[in-house]
Amino acid sequence: MTHFREGRLGWPLLFDLRSPSSGGGLKRQAHKEPTVSTRGMRKGALMESSWVLWSMTAFAVVVLYEMTRGGALLLNNLREEPKIGAASDHDWPDPPPDITVIMPAKDEEDYIERSVRSVLASDYPHFDVIVMDDRSTDRTPEIIRDLAREDSRVTVASVDRLPEGWTGKTHALYQAVKSTSSSILLFIDADTVVSPDTISRSLGFFLDRDLGMLSLVPGFMERGFIENAIHPHLALGMAFFYPLTDVNDQNKKTAFATGQFLMITRKAYEEVGTWKSFRNEITEDIALSRAVKDVGQRLMVLRAKGLALTKRFGTIAELLGFWKRTYYGGFNKSPAKMIHLTANFVSLSLLSVFMIYSAALWAMGKGDLPSAILFFVSFLAMLALVIPFGIYLQEECGNWAYSLTSPVALPVCAWVVINTLVTVLRDKGIRWRGSTYK
Fold first, then answer.
1. Alpha carbon distances (Å) from 432 to 1, 25, 86, 232, 251
2. Are 143 and 112 in contact (CB under 8 A)?
3. What does the DSSP assignment read for 58-111?
4. Is 201 found in the same domain as 168?
5. How much is the mean pLDDT over the chain?
6. If both were cysteines, with which of 68, 71, 307, 413 could 198 make a disulfide (CB 3.0 to 4.6 Å apart)?
7. Pairing of strands 99-105, 192-194
């Protein structure tokens, strides 16, 4: 008869299979105390586990330091960034300058009417609008022709073919400028809307500061998870290399701009060589900003804070396409900058993993001193990231609560920058709106 005996933890002990001649049947293995070798192996495993946890903790300490320093710098920059005052705060020349608003449009039937009407509702009286249809295949041409019939300030032009060596947008802008003599040019994207006082307030700031170029970084018409949780992290990734305090410092070469709202004097536009000088640039707005500073013209970039709003991202794939193009062109295809940016986002993603892992150890009853310290340090580092990020979201008219989703959003950001890094290293160009650019 086979006998069962309880082991130390209350579970039946293992059995061995023995031949009938040696006693027959299944019999229990005798309980054996751990040997010196077994105890050594367990001790070695524990030491190895502790070493891994301490290594994670050291990594988290470095991230905590960088996040504390970076967060303080971000908050200081937000305080120091100049703001656009009310239109009544500015001294206007007599007569006020004429402005031509130029809006390139390709397949923008969902937004073009709203964008044009927002410009036409401006309280600044001295402007006209040129809408440039860039080979649209949807209802865009029909919509803008109706707007032109309705308001004489609107002129419609079209591009039938794209010459070799040009991007569609730069060619459309170049052609539009040739048909106006205004002293100030304002380029606005067809998916961007402005408030009635945007042009007057921006122009007042522009003239008071004697600028050659002014760009506003727009907010979003609507904000969801992508616009609140993911896009702002990627924007801060760009700001790491192009902080607005440096961009707005005329003694530094750092330059940046966004094409959704870009005001420039005709003099500065001609000094940099017109759009023809940037005809094959995939990030033509950033290239133009560099040239403006290079020729000695004053450049400033401000957060729009509701003065200009653009459409939200429809999908993660659309977000990837936007930032892939922006990083690719904005960093001049620099592998060093992309590797640096990738390391930043991967490090922050690992911080999230370490915090969750150390918390899980305690939840499973396997916690010890190293895991407790790891959780404490990684949690502090995450707080050092989340708190400034929440304040930044508020400044961007977003919802601060989305800062709490950073442990989920950061790995998505890491995926975006890794994807761009691979594209840069492969050096085969980037696909954007049906064309490949190198």
1. 78, 73, 38, 22, 34
2. yes
3. HHHHHHHHHHHHHHHHHHHHHHHS-----GGGSPPPSSPPPEEEEEEESS-TTT
4. yes
5. 87
6. 307
7. unpaired
pLDDT tens profile 157-191: 999 899 998 999 999 999 999 999 999 999 999 99
For 262, counting Cβ atoms within 10 Å of its Cβ (0-12 exposed, 13-18 middle, 19+ buried), the class is buried
Q: Name the token pair of 308.
A: 């200009």
Q: Residue 183 is part of which domain span?
A: 87-223+241-314
For residues 110 and 60, state if they share a domain.
no
Tally DSSP H helices, then E strands, for the chain: 14, 14
Which amino acid would we find at residue 192? T
Question: What beta strand segments (E) does 177-298 contain?
Answer: 184-188, 192-194, 213-217, 219-220, 261-265
Decide if 160 contacts 135 (C-beta within 8 A): yes
Q: What DSSP letter does each residue of 407-430 carry, written as one string?
A: HHHHHHHHHHHHHHHHHHHHTS-E
- Domain boundary among the residues 314, 344, 378 is at 314
Cis peptide before 82 (omega within 30 of 0): no
Cβ-based neighbour number of residue 181 at 10 Å: 9
The alpha-helical segments, DSSP class H, found in 284-368 are: 284-294, 316-330, 335-363
Q: What is the rounded distance in angstroms from the CA atom of residue 184 to the CA atom of residue 180? A: 10
Q: Which residue reads 């710098």 in tokens?
A: 73
**Nearest to 173, CA basis, from 339, 256, 287, 299:** 287
The structure tokens 């032109």 sit at 148
Regarding whether 94 and 157 lie in a shared domain, the answer is yes
Residues present in the chain in total? 438
Residue carrying structure tokens 């890794």: 418
63 shares its domain with 172: no
Give CA–CA dist 113/131, Å, rounded: 11
- pLDDT tens across 300-320, in order? 999 998 899 999 999 999 999
Q: In the chain, how many domains are there?
A: 2
| Rounded distance between C-alpha atoms, residue 435 and residue 287, angstroms | 19
Q: How far apart are CA 60 and CA 381, in angstroms?
A: 7
pTM flag (> 0.70): yes
Q: Are residues 120 and 101 in the same domain?
A: yes
Rounded Cα–Cα distance for residues 119 and 339 (Å): 41
